[in-house]
Amino acid sequence: MKAFRTIRLALLMIGLLSGGARAAALSTQEGVREISQATVITSPGAYLVTRDLLVLGGSAITIQADDVTLDLNGHRIQSVPVFGTYDAAIRQQDWFANLSVFNGTVIGGAGAGIWATGRNSRVENVTVRGSQKGGILLGDMAVVENCIVVSNDLGLTGTNLICGGAGSRVAGSILIGNTGARLVGIRGGQGCIVDGCILRGNLASYYFNGVELARGGVVRSVSISDNYCASSFSGVVADGTIERCAVVRNIKDMDGGSLAGIDAGVNGVVRRCIVKENTAYSGEAYAYFHRGHGGLFDCVAFSNVAVGASAYGFCLSTNNTVASRCAATANGSRGFYGPIGCIIKQSVAKWNGWYGIDVGAWSSVERCLVDNTGDATDTRTGIAANNGNVRVENNHVLDSGRGIGCFGGVNFLSGNSAVNTTNYVNTTGQSCGAITNQPGANFISYNPWQNFGL
Fold first, then answer.
1. At a CB cut-off of 8 Å and minimum separation 6, what does 72 contact?
2. In angstroms, rounded to a whole number, what is the distance separating the alpha carbons of residues 90 and 108?
3. Beta bridge pairs of residue 373
4. What is the pLDDT of residue 246?
5. What is the DSSP string of 114-139?
6. What is the pLDDT of residues 329-376, one digit of tens each?
7. Integer Cα distance of 77 and 402 in angstroms
8. How much is the pLDDT for 1?
9. What single string gives the DSSP state of each residue in 269-298?
10. Which residues of 367-399 are buried (b: 16+ CB within 10 A; e: fewer)?
11. How far is CA 277 from CA 145, 208, 211, 245, 257, in A?
């Protein structure tokens, strides 16, 4: 027995020595310094958190150096607002740069989760919760990857859940169950990229913007669903490139403001997106809103509703905004609306409230299919041409009280066809090809401008 105890003691000593050797190697060879209590970092280098940290007010870890890498090592960093200054749980002083934080949980208390507004910060595989002043707030050229921002209550002041300055990137992150008066899910400066993120189940007592980027930003593969706000909602606001995004089942409830699924600004280009089943219980609803140049391609607007107000699938402003190969179905008032200088082509408008396609002066509607589901006494209009100089060419309209309605000015119509419409088109004062109703089988026409009522 004595011999056995001697052998066991020797083995324990070997284990301790080997563990000490590993710790020494970590500190000396890799240059990693350990953190086991609230700390102010004043030197560049790599730091490893070895236990959960809790502070009663202020920051648990403060960075006052450039080029710091902070491994949370799966631990929890928490600031509890009991006394002292209310600051971010992890804070980098504003004039420093190049901070990396990864692999842990941050609970911000009365401050933000992570505040690092210097350049070139990186936050990866971090969960931020319980914060009252923002989630992950970074400066220019920042990167946020694979993070979760959950159950933060930002109160009445309102701020951002994730924020990056110019040239930043937010990817693979989830924002869920956050609350506040004024919420912006992801905000980015010029040239910011947001890719592969999910925003779901957030609640704002005033307004909510899911993703909001400055000019030149890119939003890809983002899902924004089941969020609620009282006054004003925008799923994506980006005067840049928006691709493969979904904005689904969001609600704007009370008076004031409007609902916009995707707001593409003045020069935005939107491709392969879907906006569906969003509801504004007051104010207007826009699945897509575009203010000028640029266009929307291969997009879908389905069943967006405004209770007591107008709901639009695609609302296009001036300066030749293009909607091409798009589909607007079952939206409350209009499938496509372009008051002046817009081009709508190769698109489908089906079962929308009163107008399938409604355009103003200097616009063009080409090769579209409109099924507006009216009847013989219905005043619904398949294609409405307003205020003159509208070109309506090679479209097919069915089941509308008015097939093609011309309201003011002289418009040009050619090569169109209509089925089951009481009033195909009012030709008085219009420039249009001959209209032949019920041409029958085996008809022959040599007129390239011919319109047909079938």
1. 49, 101, 102, 103, 104, 105, 106, 126
2. 8
3. none
4. 98
5. EEE-SSS-EEEEEEEEEESS-SEEE-
6. 999 999 999 989 999 999 999 999 889 999 999 999 999 999 986 665
7. 65
8. 42
9. EEES-EEES-EESSS-EEEEEE-SSSEEES
10. ebbbbbebeeebebbbbbbbbbbbbbbebbbbb
11. 29, 17, 19, 14, 18
The pLDDT > 70 percentage for the chain reads 91
CA 60/CA 131 separation, integer angstroms: 14
Structure tokens belonging to residue 258: 């409007």
Other CB atoms within 10 Å distance of the CB of residue 8: 10
Residue 370: enclosing H or E segment and its boundaries? strand 369-371
Q: What angle do CA 336, 340, 346 make, to 5 degrees?
A: 40
pLDDT, tens digit, 9 for 90 and up, residues 384-437: 999 999 999 999 999 888 889 888 899 999 999 988 776 777 778 889 888 888
Please state, in angstroms and rounded to a whole number, the distance separating the CA atoms of residues 40 and 34. Answer: 12
* Each residue's pLDDT tens digit, 20-73: 322 222 233 358 999 999 999 999 999 999 999 999 888 999 999 999 999 999
Q: Which tokens in the block code for residue 439?
A: 């041409």
Measured in residues, the chain has a length of 454
CB atoms within 10 A of CB 85: 11
- Residue whose structure tokens are 């692999």: 103
pLDDT tens for residues 208-261?
Answer: 999 999 999 999 999 999 999 999 999 999 999 999 999 999 999 987 789 999
Predicted confidence (pLDDT) at residue 131 exceeds the cutoff of 70: yes
For residues 415 and 405, what is the distance between their CA atoms, to the nearest angstrom?
15
Longest dimension (CA), the chain: 116
| Average per-residue pLDDT for the chain | 89
Partners of 218 in beta bridges: 193, 241
Among the listed residues 159, 231, 164, 166, the one whose alpha carbon sits nearest the alpha carbon of residue 197: 164
Token pair, residue 229, equals 């706000």
- What are the distances in angstroms from CA 345 to CA 175, 316, 324? 37, 13, 5
* Other residues' Cβ atoms within 10 Å of the Cβ of residue 316: 30
Please give the Cα distance from 320 to 44 (Å, whole number). 53
Q: How far apart are CA 342 and CA 320, in angstroms?
A: 4
How far is Cα 286 from Cα 291, in angstroms, rounded to an integer?
12
Q: What is the Cα–Cα distance from 47 to 32, expressed in whole angstroms?
A: 5
Alpha carbons 135 and 226: distance in angstroms, whole number: 20
Amino acid, single-letter form, for residue 142: A
- Mean pLDDT for the stretch of residues 132-153: 96
